């Protein structure tokens, strides 16, 4: 057994491993809050994608981050000798580890035990052994906590400096703050989850006529989706692009309304307690709905595809034939609630 190095004598470590995308990690926030209540004196370290990890650290939901991009998960699978110096040192203070990944051969568990971690709960949230429906509840069940994500309403609280940074971004988009700001994300993690550009364009033009300022959000994989929406519009609409996640979060925090698909950006808007309209199609809201008190789900006909391969081959896309009037009504309702 490797001796425990105690470089953080005043804090015992608790490691949370989440290799998922932005939306998946945000759906685990109820678990993070539950663990914080249970272990208030521990130092929480999140091993996740750098962008979402940094955001949650800046919002004080975790204390430390280890970027997924630095191959820390691969090191855990490879064994103790593969651990990086600072990561290995911190693990020497760690008493407990939870995570949502498949560790069928117990390689990660064995590495953690070797470095001195005594309590380990690792399980894939996609395991067929789990019975919970919503992903947030599956995160609880996977690590053996008998709680639920239902009713979770704690908003993500951004630090003041992030909000200040976003002001310049919005000013560059010609938003003065005098009109209600509406942010629209035309993209998603998959083109098969996106509403037709023309339908979104109709909603955007209604927003303009209603005296609001719509601005599009373009992530690294959204160029084509944004271009299609812009070409469907009869008026010019600004776009936020080439910004990091924390900067976009700051802009979202100033919005009166957000419209998007089943995407990480939609989960972020909901986590910030922004009135959110989420368009769902082939994915099921019962499993993937964003958490928050101000979320409205709209969808087309029930999806007829039995698996994702069929979704990718589907041309009818009846589940995403959401009438523009339906989206407009959802936006109107959310704006009325906010006012």
Looking at the structure, what is the overall shape?
globular
Q: For this structure, what is the CATH class of the largest domain?
A: Alpha Beta
Number of strands: 11
Q: What is the CATH topology descriptor of the largest domain?
A: Rossmann fold
Which structural class do you get from the secondary structure elements?
alpha/beta
Tell me the helix content: 25-40%
Low-pLDDT sequence parts? 1-9
Order of helices and strands: EHHEHEHHEHEHHEHEHEHEHEHEHH
- Count of domains: 2
* Major sheet size, sense and barrel closure: 6 strands, parallel
Query: What gyration radius follows from the Cα positions, in whole Å?
Result: 21 Å
Mean pLDDT: 93
Strand content: 15-25%
Architecture per CATH nomenclature, i.e. the level-2 architecture of the largest domain: 3-Layer(aba) Sandwich
Oligomerization category of the chains in this entry: single chain
Q: How many helical stretches?
A: 15
Could you give the distance between the termini?
A: 60 Å
Structure characterization notes:
The strands form 2 sheets. Strands 8-7-6-9-10-11 form a 6-stranded parallel sheet, sandwiched between helices. The chain has a 5-stranded parallel sheet with strand order 3-2-1-4-5, with helices on both faces. The model is unreliable at 1-9 (pLDDT under 50). It has helices spanning 22-26, 29-38, 50-58, 72-78, 85-91, 107-115, 135-142, 160-172, 197-209, 223-232, 245-252, 264-271, 285-288, 308-313, 324-338; strands at 12-17, 42-48, 64-67, 94-99, 119-122, 181-184, 213-218, 239-241, 257-261, 276-280, 295-299. It has 339 residues and is of the alpha/beta class. The relative contact order is 0.12.
């Amino acid at each position: 057994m490797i001796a425990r190095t105690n470089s953080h004598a005043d804090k015992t470590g608790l490691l949370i491993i989440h290799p998922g995308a932005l939306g998946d990690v945000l759906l685990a926030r109820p678990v993070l809050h539950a663990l914080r209540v249970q272990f208030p004196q521990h130092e929480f370290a999140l091993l996740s994608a750098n962008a979402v990890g940094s955001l949650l650290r800046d919002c004080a939901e975790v204390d430390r981050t280890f970027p997924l991009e630095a191959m820390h998960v691969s090191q855990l699978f490879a064994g103790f000798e593969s651990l990086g110096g600072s990561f290995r040192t911190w693990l020497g203070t760690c008493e407990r580890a939870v995570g949502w990944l498949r560790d069928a051969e117990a390689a990660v568990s064995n590495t953690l035990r070797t470095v001195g971690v005594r309590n380990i709960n690792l399980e894939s949230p996609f395991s067929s052994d789990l019975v919970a429906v919503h992903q947030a509840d599956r995160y609880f069940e996977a690590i053996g906590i008998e709680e639920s994500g239902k009713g979770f309403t704690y908003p993500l609280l951004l630090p003041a400096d992030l909000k200040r940074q976003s002001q310049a971004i919005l000013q560059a988009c010609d938003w003065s703050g005098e009109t209600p700001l509406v942010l629209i994300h035309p993209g998603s993690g998959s083109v098969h989850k996106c509403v037709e550009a023309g339908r979104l364009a109709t909603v955007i033009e209604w927003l303009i006529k209603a005296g609001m300022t719509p601005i599009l959000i373009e992530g690294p994989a959204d160029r084509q989706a944004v271009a299609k929406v812009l070409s469907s519009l009869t008026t010019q609409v600004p776009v936020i692009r080439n910004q990091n996640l924390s900067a976009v979060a700051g802009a979202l925090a100033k919005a009166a309304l957000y419209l998007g698909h089943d995407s990480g950006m939609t989960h972020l808007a909901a986590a910030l307690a922004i009135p959110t309209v989420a368009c769902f199609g082939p994915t099921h809201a019962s499993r993937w709905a964003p958490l928050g008190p101000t979320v409205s789900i709209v969808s087309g006909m029930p999806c007829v595809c039995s698996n994702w391969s069929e979704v990718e081959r589907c041309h009818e896309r009846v589940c995403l034939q959401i009438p523009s009037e339906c989206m407009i009504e959802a936006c109107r309702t959310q704006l009325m609630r906010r006012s």
